[in-house]
Amino acid sequence: MGNYNVKEEVTDKYSLRGRVFHRIRENILNGTYKEHEELKEVTVGEELGVSRTPVREAFRQLELEGLIQIIPNKGAYVTGITEKDVKDIYIIRSLLEGLCARWATENITKEQLDEMEENVYLASFYAEKGHMEQLAQLDNRFHEIMYEACNSKMLEHQLKDFHEYVLRVRKKTLATSRGNASNKEHEQIMLAIKAGDGELAQELAHTHMINAYENMVKNGLHEVYQKENLELERENKK
Distance between CA atoms of 228 and 223, rounded to whole angstroms? Predict the structure, then answer.
């Protein structure tokens, strides 16, 4: 893995400590750092071009998030997102997304609703063409619009975190048929929000998340984790 100097990152959105935290977190969630891998402060600091102090602080924050485990007198080890975590996330998300859809019905602006309608239309176009990368991007954006429209920074923050947690495994289990079905569910949610029917929007968003998880199981969720565990075992035997 090539060196990456986090000090040279353009964004001013986060402090140095925050940027280090988000970079390590991203590397855990995208699979760069593998489950059970030991993370050493010095090594990670050298990779990011920073001292050990912001790395140590990031480790503490990541432990609170459940992404690493710090074992006294041993070190920090990647916990990552397990198969059970994915299931738990989708069950919790189904409830929170339902609440989000209800609140979005009450608070959505005309501009947000227009973007949501356009999103559904474009997704339908790309689904017919079989352009899955664009479809996945539009899928992500649909949920972001709804999160923003709910007018709750606490709920928006939690849902965006959950969305990031499962992004890697979603990409590995995305099925073409589900992409089209998912967008049709988005359309029904959008129409309920547009009609001002918060109860229906809540029910549809809840069901949408349950369907998404069941699709992941059907399209190889268990096999993805099984394969990664076998690869890890081979690496440890070397």
Answer: 8
Q: How far is CA 139 from CA 26, 173, 210, 216, 219, in A?
A: 20, 15, 16, 15, 18
pLDDT at 9: 47
Supply the CATH classification number for the domain 6-78: 1.10.10.10
pTM for this model (two decimals): 0.79
Inter-helix orientation angle 198-218/176-194, to 10°: 170
Listing DSSP states for 34-95 in one string gives: PTT-EE-HHHHHHHHT--HHHHHHHHHHHHHTTSEEEETTTEEEE----HHHHHHHHHHHHH
Q: Tens of pLDDT along 151-165?
A: 999 999 999 999 888
Domain 83-223 has CATH 3.40.50.720: no
